Amino acid sequence: VxxxxxxxxxxxxxxxxxxxxxxxxxxxxxxxxxxxxxxxLRLIDEKKRELHSxxxxxxDIPLSSCIQRMEKACGGILAExxxxxxxASQVRRFANYYLPDAVKILxxxxxxxxxxxxxxxxxxxxxxxxxxxxxxxxxxENQLDSLFAMDAMDISTDLEVxxxxxxxxxxMNQ
Length: 174
Known about the structure:
The chain has helices at 2-18, 35-57, 61-83, 92-115, 120-146, 149-168. It has six helices and no strands. By secondary structure, the protein is mainly alpha-helical. Helix 3 (61-83) runs parallel beside helix 5.
């Protein structure tokens, strides 16, 4: 028994040296089973990360708040589409046009701010971006909300049916 314990311990120590405990984390790309949806999710995720870096670059507090709202809406859209890839068609235009354009505009703003560009045109650009950022953030939030429109309608219908059944069986007051 002692020989077996000694051999087992030696084998364990040798295996630990040869195969050390190393945990490496690897980011797994989106895998919904649909290549076009996965590509769209990667694009949204990339733009969401850009929004985060832009938020760190832009000092304007109200504009930063709007960028954070956009980033949060993108996160919600990512999560919902990853869980329900059939909803991807509802956000295709958002992913391909609105989100990249918003990020491009915010990059321009950040570049102007960082370079300290002065002048009437630069001031107009900054003002226009700052004024429209809340509208863009609201549009992003509305895009996320629209993904749940059918779910809300289904729940409403189910609740109405349940209420009618309960009333029909005398379990509720009318």
